[in-house]
Amino acid sequence: MKRPRVRDDLVQLEGYHSPQVDVDVRLNTNEAPVPPPDGFRDAVAAELSRVDWNRYPDRAATALREAIAEHHGVDPAQVFAANGSNEVLQSICLAYGGAGRWAVDFQPTYLMHAQIASVTGTSVRHGRRLADFTLDPDEARRTVQENDADITFLCSPNNPTGMVEPPEVLKAVIEAAPGVVVVDEAYGQFADWSAVLMLDEDLPMVVTRTFSKTWSMAAARLGYLLGPTWLVAELEKVVLPYHLDALKQAVGIVALRYEAEMHERVAALVAERERLVAAMDQLPLEQWPSGANFILFRPRDRPGRNVWQELLDRSVLVRDTSSWPGLEGCLRVTVGTTAEDDAFLAALTEVLS
To answer: Do 91 and 184 lie in a common domain?
Structure first.
C-alpha cells in the first residue's frame, strides 16, 4: 500500500511525551498534588446538569472570559481561552508564525515552544542561556534582533529550570523584539512577580496561563492568554469554531469561585518546596533556585539517567531532563504532598549514598 508522505519538515520531528508508568510516587509532570477544594465536584455537577447538549457552546466563551478578566483586573476583550495553554501557543503561532517566519526561544526551556512552532510551519532559532541558566539581557537583545523574531518565547518561571525572569530582562526583550513576545507563566502563581503587571494595549506582549497547576485541573485541559485587545482579536481568526466546549467553560468559571483556596494551596506548595530544597541541600547534588512547583537538580557523582532509573526501581518517578539541550545529567522533581516528598527524599538519599 502506498503511504502518503507527511510534510518534509515533520519527518524528523518527534512528539512530546512524559512517561506514564504505574508507581507509588509520581513526581514527573508538575501536576497539583491535591484535588480541587471541597464543593468543587458538586458545583461542577450542578453546572453539568444545565448544559444544553444539543446546542453548540458559546463560541466566544463570554462568561469564562469575563470571569478570568475579573480575576486579573483586565477587560474581557484582553482574554483568549483555549484547550490548555498549548492551544493558546499554537494559536499565536498560527496567527503570527508560519512559512517564512521565525520564532526564538532561549534554551534550556520548555520544549513545546519549538515543537508547536515547528508544527505550524514556523522556523525556530535558539538563543542560549548562561551556564547558571540565567538569561543575559544583551544576549537576548542580540538574538531577537539578529533573527528578526516574529515570535519570542520566554518561560517564567522557566520550565525545567524553575527560574523566574527578572523584570529588567523581560523589558530588554520587549524593547528589542520586532514581533510578539510570549511570556509563558504556566507556573506564574508560584513566582514572586508576574509579567501581567506589564500588560499594555500598545505593547506586543502576551502572558499565557493554565488551570492545570495551581487550580488542580490538569484533567480539564484549559488555558488562556492575557494581551492587547487587537492581538486577541487576531487569535480569534485562527481557532476552529466552537473549539472550547461548554463543559470546559463551565468548569473554568466554577474554579475561579475558589480563588482563596487556590492561594492557600499555592502558599502550602511554596512552603513544601522550600522544605524540599533544604533537605536536598544536604545531599551530593546541585540544584537551582525555583519559583515554580518543581526543582531541577543534578547528582554530583552519578549519571542523572542512572539515578532516574534507580528511583524508578524504588517506585518513585521524576522527570529525566538529561537529554534536553544544556541539561546534561539533570533531573526534575515536582513538589508533591509531604508524604510523597518524604518518599522521594528517602529514595534519593538511598540512591546517592
So the answer is: yes
